[in-house]
Write a structure and sequence with these properties.
This is SCP domain-containing protein. By secondary structure, the protein is α+β, with helices and mostly antiparallel strands. It has helices at about 5-20, 30-45, 55, 80-85, 105-110, 150-155; strands at about 30, 60-70, 115-125, 125-135, 165-170, 170-175. It is globular, with a radius of gyration of 16 Å.
Length: about 180
C-alpha cells in the first residue's frame, strides 16, 4: 500500500467514525472520487489561494478542502487530523434550527451522502487535502433532515466500540 493509500484509508476510517457518532450510515470509498479529489488537490498545490473545483461549483460533488503551509520545506497532514479539524465546527452548529457554519462539518456528517474520495498533494512548504462527496451535501433547506446531534451515549462520555462496528471486506470498511 502506498503512502497515499494509507492516507486515504485513514481519512475514510475517520469519516465513518465521525458519521457513526452522529447516527448516520458509513460512506463507501469511491475510486472515481479519489481521482477527482486528487486532480483538484494537485491543481490547488500550484495556486496561491483556495477555491472550489469546477465539479463542486456545478453541484456535481460536495467538497472539503484543507491547506497547510509552512516556511519549512516538508509539510504533511494525517487523514484523521484533517477529519478532526473539519468535525470541530460541530461545536458552533445549531442542531435545533439547522443554522451555523455550513461547510466541512455538515458535509462530513450529511446523512444522504453515500460515497467519498480523497486527494492529497504536498510540495515545498504546502500540503493540500481535498475530499469529494456524492451526492453532495449542504443543500439549502435540508439541514434539519441531514445533520444530527451526536448520540447521547457518546456525548456523555460512554464510548461505544467504534472499531468493532466495522467489518473489513477487501480493504474497505462497512457498517
Amino acid at each position: 500500500m502506498s503512502r497515499l493509500d494509507d492516507f486515504r484509508e485513514d481519512c475514510f476510517r475517520a469519516h465513518n467514525e465521525k458519521r457513526l457518532l452522529h447516527g448516520v450510515c458509513a460512506l463507501r470509498h469511491s475510486l472515481a472520487l479519489d481521482k477527482t479529489a486528487q486532480d483538484w488537490a494537485e491543481a490547488l498545490l500550484l495556486e496561491d489561494g483556495i477555491k472550489n473545483s469546477p465539479l463542486s461549483s456545478r453541484g456535481e460533488v460536495g467538497e472539503s478542502i484543507s491547506v497547510r503551509t509552512s516556511t519549512g520545506t516538508h509539510v504533511d497532514m494525517q487523514g484523521h487530523e484533517v477529519v478532526n479539524t473539519w468535525h470541530s465546527d460541530a461545536e458552533n452548529y445549531n442542531y435545533e434550527n439547522g443554522k451555523g457554519p455550513a461547510g466541512n462539518f455538515t458535509q462530513l456528517v450529511w446523512s444522504s451522502t453515500r460515497e467519498v474520495g480523497f486527494g492529497k498533494a504536498c510540495g515545498p512548504g504546502k500540503c493540500v487535502v481535498v475530499a469529494h462527496y456524492r451526492p453532495p451535501g449542504n443543500v439549502l433547506g435540508r439541514y434539519l433532515e441531514n445533520v444530527f446531534r451526536p448520540k447521547e451515549s457518546v456525548k456523555e462520555g460512554v464510548k461505544q466500540p467504534i472499531r468493532n462496528t466495522f467489518a473489513l471486506n477487501n480493504g474497505k470498511y462497512f457498517l
